[in-house]
Design brief:
Layout lengths: L1 H13 L3 H12 L8 H7 L4 H8 L3 H5 L1 H4 L2 H21 L2 H10 L10 H6 L3 H12 L5
Helix pairs in contact: 2-7, 7-8, 7-10
């Protein structure tokens, strides 16, 4: 009986919570200072640097050179993208599915635009607000 209880406790302890899953994807592509590693992010999401730039709404030359990718604007845009991916990763089924949702799923409450299009236009806050609304049980 004690063994069964220990197994249950071990299983509970090893299952990721929403917060730890979010932390994991962010920690996977960012260092402790909050700098997004473009190469690691592109390879981890199985897309090219050019595709990553287009997905984040950045010029391809910005992510091509490390010193340009470390500037404030591209880092901010990449962090916004990562935060949204982290928020949808659990219910999407993983990173590839979260990226597919981010790029292709129209959001009816936001004029039928995708998260990708909204982030490109600087409206990541609208996507985050929408995801908060849905997480609290609101209609999509």
């Amino acid at each position: 009986m004690a063994t069964l209880a220990a197994k249950r406790t071990a299983r509970r302890g090893s299952s990721p919570t929403r917060k730890s899953a979010r932390t994991t994807i962010l920690a996977k592509y960012m260092d402790k200072r909050g700098i997004v590693d473009v190469s690691r992010m592109a390879s981890g999401l199985f897309i090219s640097r050019d595709q990553l730039a287009k997905t984040a709404g950045l010029p391809t030359t910005t992510v091509a050179k490390r010193e340009r990718s470390l500037a404030a604007r591209p880092q901010h845009r990449l962090r916004e993208m990562l935060e949204i991916l982290a928020r949808v990763e659990d219910w999407a089924g993983g990173e590839p599915q979260a990226l597919a949702w981010y790029r292709a799923q129209p959001i009816p409450a936001l004029d039928g635009r995708t998260a990708e299009a909204l982030v490109r236009d600087g409206r990541a806050a609208s996507v985050r607000n929408y995801l908060d609304h849905v997480a609290l049980g609101g209609f999509a």
